[in-house]
Prior knowledge:
By secondary structure, the chain is α/β, with parallel strands linked by helices. It has helices spanning 3-20, 24-33, 40-47, 51-63, 83-99, 101-109, 122-131, 142-147, 185-193, and strands at residues 38-39, 67-72, 75-80, 117-121, 134-138, 154-155, 173-177, 199-203, 220-226.
Amino acid sequence: MNNRSLKDLLYEQVARVGKALSSPKRLEMLEMLAQGEKSVEAVAGAVSVDIKLASAHLKALKEARLVQSRRDGKRMLYRLSGQDVAQLGVTVRQVAEEHLLELRMALQQMMAEPERLAQVGRKALLTQAKRGDVVVIDVRPQDEYDTAHLPYARSIPLTELTHRLAELPRDTEIVAYCRGPYCLLAFEAVAELRLPVDVWGLIPSAENLPSGSSYRPGDIVTVAERWF
């Protein structure tokens, strides 16, 4: 094999990863799997596609060695092949946000009032939570909370929130968080809470790694401020 053929072969293999990432739904699936192992049915429901299409997308990710699978009875479960895959998804997102004006404009539309954003470091937020100055609630599904969560966070999945309002204090600020920066569960939680206290939707604008301790010291998270 001559040098040209060898070089073509090398880039062809690297391009397998790029091709696997070329679908918006597959990128969303990687973010879902960064939260922990999930069944095909759970992935399909989370990204709003049918099971057949979800299976096809997961097959493409598996062929690129980005995910692995195992059988659990009649269910097929998928997980990321490694933490480097989670970091790859973060890197792709960061490059897109840096260079795509359209994406930055779309992100601004996520906020009703984008000028009312505050930045808070991980250490500062956790210090406030430890002191009881704020109550942090994790509105992701219970299995994702069980896999990993922020210290001092309470698990109250969005689907249970309206029935568990009595568990939340009426005189303390509440911070709701979900997955990565494109997750809207926290804002849905803010809308449902409607408590007579300050409620914040937390956007984890840092690495979306599969561990509550994965944020590095000094990481900045963005908080969208809402009042009711």
